[in-house]
Amino acid sequence: MADNQSKEYSYTDKVSVIVPIYNSEKYLMACLESIVNQTYKNLEIILVDDGSTDDSGRICDEYAKRDARVKVIHKANGGNGNARNAGLECASGEWLVWVDNDDIIHKQQIEILLSAAKKQNLDIAVGGYYAIDDDEVPEDKNIDNHLHEAEVITDEHLYNDEFIKKRSMIFTVPWGKICKRELYNGIKFPARSRNDDTWTTWKVYERVNKVGLLDETLYYWRNNPNSFGRVFDASHLNGIDAYKEQLEYFRSAKKQRYVEIVYAEYTESFFWCYNRMREHNMDLSALKPYWEYMRKSVRYIKLTRSMGLYMWLKYRYLVYYRIPKLIK
Asked: Which CATH architecture has domain 3-222?
């Protein structure tokens, strides 16, 4: 960014950047370089070493020696969610940014997101992301045209299936956004779930008044095949449980469109696990309780302006005919 643009935003808000870390020595330095070299400088950088057995802990300590903004927490391995919770406990900034330990953020990410949040009185400002390959180094060009306003998310976005399909990931994950720290008060991540974001992020959104989306690539998500969430085992079924909790909440809150969206996510997660389990020759009977809940809760899906007859019938076909044949 040009110097004159950087000076235009003279906010003094402290931003806490939390990085849960486990055995990420291959990627960690690139991740941390992208954080310490942000154009926005008033940062508290919290590195949570979750019992790494490689060189990750030493790398964290080296950055703490070089940069007074860096705080390192070394702890016994407790899982990704447990590491996030440890970072939250010591975060003192007004704003919060999450970064995964194998990813990279654009050098202007925090400045741009914070600028939008302050300018438009947003509780959460969300940026775009780009998936990079395992050894890819993104081209971190200056962004000079970020002064346009963020697109404020309204109820109408909930009825745009194309928007939901395109943006569902970036709104679910903790990373790629800046949010008010207070939104996480009283919220904890499940310790060892591979789906800690699915259990948690929606609870944060339930507390907000205003969310904005910027169509700028500000986060580089590494498509790492060996990352914690990419290696499949039976613990991934826990993600379906997370959608069950959401579904029950939104049903009791009488938010019918949210019920429809979450039921779709539940169904998609079910079939994703089914396909992975078949690939690994796993016992498919473990899916039966999830099908039974899906069958029980299909009655929550009603004919509405957003739920057409085709999808209404399709869900019933799946739970009464298709799925029983797949997991018999």
From this structure: Alpha-Beta Complex (3.90)
